[in-house]
Structure formats: C-alpha cells, structure tokens
Amino acid sequence: MPNISDQDSAIAFGPFRLFAKSRLLEKDGAPLHLGGRALDILIFLAERAGEVVDKRELIRRVWADVNVDEGSLRFHITTLRKALGDAGEGSRYVVNVPGRGYCFAAPLLRAEPAERRASPAVSAPHALPAPLAKMIGRDDAVERISAELAQHRFVTIVGPGGIGKTSVALAVAHGELAAFDGQVSFVDFGALTDARLIPGTIAATLGLTINSDDPMPGLLTFLRSRRMLLVFDSCEHIIDELAPLAERMVREADELHVLATSRESFRAEGERVHRLFPLDCPPERAGLGIADILAYPASQLFVERIAESLGDFELSEEDAPLVADICRRLDGIALAIELAAGRVNAYGIAGTASLLDNRFSLLWRGRRTAIPRHQTLSAALAWSYDLLPATESAALRGLSVFVGPFTLEAALAVACSQGISESEAAEAISNLLSKSLIATSPAERRLRYRLLDTTRTFVGDKLVENGEASRVARAHAEYFRDFLRDIALKSTGMQSAGGFLPYADHLPNVRAALTWSFSDGGDRTIGVGLAASAAQFFLELTLLTECYRWTQRALDAGPADSRQEMTLQAALGVSVMFTQGNTDAVRAAFTRSLELARELEDLHWQLWLLRGLHIYLTRLGDFHGALGTGEQSESVARKLNDPAATLNVEWMLGVAHHLIGNQDKAVQFCQSAMLQNPGSQRLNIGHLGYDDRIVALVALARGLWLTGRPDRAIEAAGYAVREAELLEQPLTLGISLIWTIYVFLWVGDFANAEILIERLIDHSARHFLGPYHAVGIGQKGELLLRRGDVTAGIEHLRRSQATLYATRHRIMTTVFATALAEGLAAQDQPDLALQTIDEAIGQIPDHGESFDMPEMLRVKGEILARSGNAAEAETYLRRSLDLARRQCALGWELRGAISLGRIWQRAGKAGEARALLAPLVAQYQEGLQSRDLAAARGLLNTLN
Question: How far lies 67's CA from each of 28, 80, 490, 810, in Å?
Fold first, then answer.
C-alpha cells in the first residue's frame, strides 16, 4: 500500500489523485471540491485501504472534539460517494460492511510527487451545498440580502438558532452564482473548534495548497486576483478571531464579497447586519379560516413539512386554529416548526399541540441529514448557551423567570439577583441581545424584551439545575411589588398622569409573581404586598375575578399594614360588587377601607372610597343614600382644592339627582361631561373599573329626554357609547349600554334599541358581568312587549328579575317590574298586574322619590282603568302628573297626560283633555317624530 503520509506522495485510484498533506483531491487532473469532513473520511480510509474501519473509530478520528451520532457519518459517506461518482461507482470505492464499518476497496497506486506535477489553475468550487427544494416565507429576505451584498460587500445574517440563517444564505449564494461567474464558495465553520485553523479552513475550501504557518498572505494573494463570494456559515463560536480576518480580507481584496451567518454580528468595519426575524404567524384572533391561517409563512411551513412526511395532507377547519397556535407558541422559528411538524405523524395535530407544554419537545429529533446541533431544539440551544461566558449565562438563566415581555429595569433587577453587578448585568443583556438569545418586543411607549418560548424553557431548566429558581423568583416578585406600588402612589390623585393601562403588558409577570408568592415555596409577606400593589392594576384592567381572588387570598394570609389593608379591602369591595352582586360583604369592605383611609388622613383615598359607596348605594336602589355620599365627597373635594375632584363630585351629585328624580339638577350637574376632554380630567377613581364622566353622560342623555329634548338625548346617548368604547373598560361600556338603551326605547327607535340590547347581552357574557347580563335579558323582554310579543316579553322579564333580586342589583328592579305589570295587564291578568306594580312602588323608600316613580304611578292608573276603575285610575294619573312636574320630567308628564286624556275622552271630556295635552306638546321644539309625541298628536287629532 502506498505511504500516503509522505510529504511529496500522492495516491491514485481510478481517475482520482489524492494529496493528503495538501488536502487536495483531483479528478482527471482538475481539483474536485469535497467538504472537509468527507475529505477527512477519505484520507483516513485510504490510509487503511483494504481494512474494515469501525464506525466508532472513524467518528473519533474525524470528529475528535465533537460528540456526534452515526447519522452525521452516514451523511458524509453519502456525500463522499456522490463526489467519487454515481451511486454505483462511488460505492465501488467505499464499501459498507454491515454491522462493522466501512472499507476503502479500490486498488491504490503511487502517483508523482506534488512538487513535480504541473500546478493546475485553481478555481473556486461550484459545489455549494444544495439549497432547500422549497423555502417558505424568505423570498423578500433573499432579495434584500442580495441587494445589500452588491452594495456593501460584507453582510452578516444574524438571528437565533434554528431561524433559517443557513438556508437563506445558501439561497442567496445560489442566486449569485451567475453574478460571480461561478466563483462562490461555502465555508462551514460549525465544526471548527480551534480558531487558529480559520485561515487554513478557508484556504482548504478554496482548494489552495499553502505550505506555511501563516496562510493569510497566500490566501489574500489568491483573493485579490479574482471577483468572488465567500459564504461563512455558523460563525458565532469563533467570531472574535474571525472578525478581524474577515475585515482584513474585505478591505484588501477589492472584488471579494463576504456573506456570513451568525447568532451575533461581527462588529467589523464595513459590515452590514441583516437581522432575520421569525416567520410571520397567524394572529391570536377568533374567526380566522383555513385560507387566513395559510396566508402566513409559519403555517405554510408547518403544513408543507407534514405533507412531506404524510403524503396527501389537507388541513381541516378543526385543526387550522391549532396549527396557528402551534406556530405562535414556537415563535415562528423554522427549526422548531419543522420538528413539531415531524411529530404529527405520531400524535396528530391536537396531540402535538398538547405536547408543546412538555419540555421533552426540546428533544424531538429532526432530519437525519441535519447537522448535529440542528437535530433537536435542545442541541440548537445548547450550542449557543455553552458559548456564553459565566455572567451572560447567569443573567440568561435569571431572565427565564419572565413570562412575556419585560423592561430593561426589570431585567436588571432580576439579573442582579444572580450575584452580578448592575453594570455587568447591563453588559450581559446587551450581549445576549446581540447574540439573538433575547428578542425585542414592539411596544408603544418603550422598548420591551422577551425570551423566545423555546429559549425560556431551556434556560429555565438550567435555572432549576443550578439551584437558583427560588432566589430569582423572589427578586422577580419583589420587583413587580415595588414597581406597581410606585405607579399606585403616582396615580393616587385625580390627575391624568400615571395610571396602569400603559403597563398592561406586565400582566403575565404580575400573575406569575403572585402565583409564586402564595405557593408553598413562596413568601406570603411579599405576596400580601404584591397583591395590595396589584389590586388597582387588576381593577383598571377590569380583571375583576382575578382581583377578587388575589385580594381575598392576601387578606386571608395576613397580616397587612394599614395602607395595604385599606387597598385590599377597597379592591375586594369593588370586585365582589361587580361579579357577585351588591352583598353585605361589599358594604363591609368599603366601610372598613374608608375607616382606615380616615385614620391615615388620606383624602384621595377617602374620595375614592366614597365614590365606591356611591356606586354601591345606587345599585342597591338607595338613591338618597347615594346623594348623601356625594355631599360627603363635596366636603373632601373642598379640602383637596382640586378642580378635577370638584368636577367629578359634581357628576356624582348629578347622577344621584337623576336617580332621585331631580332632572333639572341632573342636567345642570352633568352637562359639563359633554365638554370635557376624556383624557384631561380622568379620575383615578377609574380604578373602580369605569369612568365617572361616562356615567354622567348617560345620566345627561336620560335627563335630556325626561326634560323634553329627545333629539339631544339621542345625540348624547350615542356620544356616551362612543366615548365608552374608546376607554376599553368593559364595565364602563356595559353601563353606557344599559342606560342609553332606554333613551332609544323611550323615543320608539326599537331597531337601534335591539342592536344595543344584543350587544349588551354578548358583552356582559364575554366579560362575566352577571348582573349586567340579567339587565340585558330584562331589556330584551321590555322590547318584546313593545313589539307585541307579550308572552316572550314576560318570560324574559321574570328571568331577569330572579337574577337581579338574587344579586341585590335593585337599581333596575322597579323598571322591569313596571314593564312586567304592563305585560300582565295586556294578558288580561289585572289582579296580578296590580300586585306587581304595587310591589314595585313599595320598593321605593318612605319619601317616595325616584326617577321612575311618575311612570310607575301612570302604569298603575292604566291598569286600574283597564279594570273599569276610572275614578281611582284618574287619582293615580294626577299623582303621576304632579310628581313629573316637580321632577321637571316633561317626558313622564306627557305620557301621564296621554293616559289621562284617553280616560277623559272616553268620559266625554274632550275639551279638558285638549287643554291638558296641547300645552305639553307645544313645549317640545324637537323630537316631533318620537313615539310619545306622535301618540299625543294622534290623540289631539281625535279630540279635535
């Protein structure tokens, strides 16, 4: 056998000559490009030609410092055979001996020494690795990178592992073959462990024979002489050494272009960085169909890879949302999506989606031909993680505690708990960002960061392995406790500054911190403080069920200081009131909190709590109690000497006057709500879950109808709903819908009333607002009555009343009882109708004042008239008219006059009826086509 270790020797087999020392393979006298691993295999097998070399021995020789499996060996054997000829001929040289290994079986001959042969002209190899048969979602990136490469000569594709950098680089390289006359070479640095071998690796890839300790001069001489493109792949682990070399090559070889892939940039002169982002995923939105979901590249890739393994595959409507969810949870990372798609054959799409919660998904294997670090997600992540210095890996482990986006301040607080200084943490975070291990997240106000879910899972395991999980979780919880407390302190007053809405993206982290704090391994003292700080946060975001859960848990855990208990009791009262009804627990919570606020002499909190009590009392139907609370609030507002506080207290008073029945005062106090910019005078009483200005607007709209201005009432009602929509507060929108619906019912616009009622029912169901849903059902019943479907209307009203009584939501019970009495009378059940209206009237306290009392008296008069008791009916109708006049409620007065006018008409008192009705109609300057005015004019015509 020829001695191929001889410096000057070469061996020949068939049309090939192998120069082992020069690492050169020729075919018919011309250099033949062969990848570095395949060439190592050929040299080793040729050294032991005729022997069977064990696979494990071959792997140890070729991959000395890298742990790989037999799949990598088979891949490079296949590559070698292809280079040596077609499948049959290549197999004739390299033979597989099943169960044992491989053997070089061709006869070898001694060839002429390298120095005596004519040196062939060296040309760049054209054998780039094959591109993907079909690349999805990267056409724009390939086009932009090609343009950047033409203009800047040095471009680095940067992105996290598995995102598709190599695939994009190969697509660009193949696209540039014609532009560079075939002079395009691909250098894979992935397996290179000794940075000193970088120049030699580049030279070997170019087919150069350089017999020098420093290959750079010869390499530069070669590169200066031609226009070519070098593709440097997987550079992150040798980037410190490669960066100056690449910079020098580009600077000294004018026609050289370099395209690199790395998880961080070179930071070299002349470098242009192209950051490769994840594939676009379908948004988390209901109603997306198959076509919508498959319009996104991430979904296309997932379905394409399934089809490759399963043959005929068609996405179903049932599975389409699951595919969208899988792609989102995998952050659009191409490798992760391909690995997940590979599980569908075994588990189905639903099963694969469920397995994403299992950290073993990090170990799913991909294509056998993939390089080892891309065969599992864990391997891809370990490749990056193992390259990190200690401070960066410690910081990254700490950041795994975050759920979703986080700020730099939060990241520093947590990273510093890992025993590193703030300056070290800041530098580590910057470096992790440049290495694509931290991603940026779009935000309106300031930059947010996040870990991709796969990265977070991987380093979260490392956090536990290192025994750091409890310490980091504590730092995370303490940070959010203090962060929310500071916002609460800034927003205690009624100015527009501060507020929690801009920080809604912290919600997942607040939840995680609370969960840890109250867990067996957590710290309940931190939990109590965090729950107190987070209470207003939950209220402003209208997360009432969560607010109740955590405030109750904190109060049960105790003890809390006075301010913490004040905050927790107030939030508990609000959350119970709006989710469980107006129970005694609500009054007890508000009363205790107000007591603490007075002890602390905190006027802002006193005003906040008086507002809460005002809401509670109005919902309970104690309108005079609500007015008294408003008057107490006036006193507090004077001490604060705050115009915004004074304005909001006026709105509280206006709402109370409307509900009592003082409609002129209601309009007077509430009309300023039409003029106020919603952003300039927002009470932080908004923490109660809705906006006082909107409540004032709906009271104004109703007051305008009641005082005889129907058109302006409709205008104000529509404006109130539109303004409520802008606030994005479910409670506020629910209130605006409930109270403005009546304006449309009163004017007889049943079509728009129906739209708003259905919207209210849907809205309250989606946001778990039980009493509001019951109100919507009752309003639907009232609409059915007005349209003549009496039986269905009564059924809806009774359902509604049962729920409202159970939850003590009494503000609407008299309104619905009045409608129910009308329905029963229409069904010729006068006794039951009379009983129902008497019970409704009896709910009003002894002073007998409420906004709907004139209407209740009118309906009782109508029922008595139906029963033939005209005299008593007239008595109640006169009482209704008198009370309506005292309330300045022209709307009720007109209705009462119509009812009494009809009785007088039947009694032959047409003149008296005209005298009663005509002056009231004449007072109206607008809304002449509204339902009651049309009825009044019709009656006047018959009287005439």
Answer: 36, 21, 56, 74
Using alpha carbons only, what angle is made at residue 811 by residues 805 and 813, rounded to the nearest 5 degrees? Answer: 50
Tens of pLDDT, residues 461-503? 889 999 999 999 999 999 999 999 988 877 654 333 347 878 8
Task: Give the C-alpha separation, 720 to 732, whole Å.
Answer: 10
Task: Give SS3 for 437.
Answer: coil
∠863-867-869 over CA atoms, to 5°? 95
**Residues 687, 698: Cα–Cα separation, whole Å:** 19
* CB of 566 closer than 8 Å to CB of 593: yes
Peptide bond into 199 cis (omega under 30): no
Considering only CA atoms, give the Rg of the chain. Answer: 40
Q: β-pairing, 94-97 with 101-104? A: antiparallel
Contact 232, 260 (CB under 8 A): yes
Compute CA 712 distance to the chain's CA centroid, rounded to the nearest angstrom. Answer: 40
Rounded CA-CA distance 860/915 in Å is 23
Place of tokens 């300031």: 446
Q: Are 124 and 185 in contact (CB under 8 A)?
A: yes
What is the spatial distance between Cα 776 and Cα 764, in angstroms, rounded to a whole number?
8
First to last CA, the chain: 131
Q: What is the DSSP string of 513-557?
A: HHHHHTSTTS-HHHHHHHHHHHHHHHHHTT-HHHHHHHHHHHHHH
Distance CA 800, CA 789 (A): 17
Alpha helices in 163-273 (DSSP H): 165-175, 198-205, 216-224, 239-252
Write down the pLDDT at residue 913. 94
Across the chain, mean pLDDT equals: 84
Q: Which two tokens stand for residue 338?
A: 């391909």
859 close to 833: Cβ distance less than 8 angstroms = no
Strand pairing report for 52-54 and 94-97? unpaired
Q: For residue 106, give both structure tokens.
A: 């061709």
CA pseudo-torsion sign 69, 73, 79, 81? negative
Q: Between 710-727 and 730-747, two packed helices, what is the crossing angle to 10 degrees?
A: 160
Which range has highest mean pLDDT (495-499, 639-643, 919-923)?
919-923
425 in Cβ contact with 395 (< 8 Å): yes
Place of tokens 């306290």: 845
If you write DSSP's letter for every residue of 770-817 in order, what string do you get? HHHHHHHHHHHHHHHHHTT-HHHHHHHHHHHHHHHHHTT-TTTHHHHH
* Residue 680 CB neighbours (<10 A): 9
Q: Which of 303, 458, 453, 438 is nearest to 386 (CA)?
A: 458
Long-range contacts, 173-177 (Cβ 8 Å, 24+): 173/128, 173/229, 173/231, 173/259, 174/128, 174/131, 175/142, 175/146, 176/146, 176/149, 176/229, 177/126, 177/128
Longest dimension (CA), the chain: 137
Kindly state the helix (H) or strand (E) to which residue 146 belongs, with its residue range.
helix 139-152
Q: Going by C-beta distance under 8 Å and a sequence separation of 6 or more, which residues neighbour residue 91?
A: 81
Report the b/e string of 916-936 with b at 16+ CB within 10 A: bbbebbeebeebeebbbbeeb
- What span, in angstroms and rounded, lies between the C-alpha atoms of 656 and 634? 13
Q: Give the number of other Cβ atoms within 10 Å of residue 622's Cβ.
A: 18
Tell me what the mean pLDDT of segment 596-621 comes to.
90
HEC-encoded secondary structure of 718-731: HHHHHHHHHHCCHH
Phi, then psi, of 532 in degrees rounded to 5: -65, -40
pLDDT tens for residues 870-879? 999 999 999 9
In this structure, are residues 299 and 327 in contact, taking their beta carbons and an 8 Å threshold?
Answer: yes
Q: What would the two tokens of residue 366 be? A: 């991909």
pLDDT at site 119: 36
Which candidate, 380, 365, 429, 439, places its Cα nearest to that of 164? Answer: 380
Distance CA 843, CA 767 (A): 30
3-state SS, one letter per residue, for 445-481? CCCEEECCHHHHHHHHHHHHHCCCHHHHHHHHHHHHH
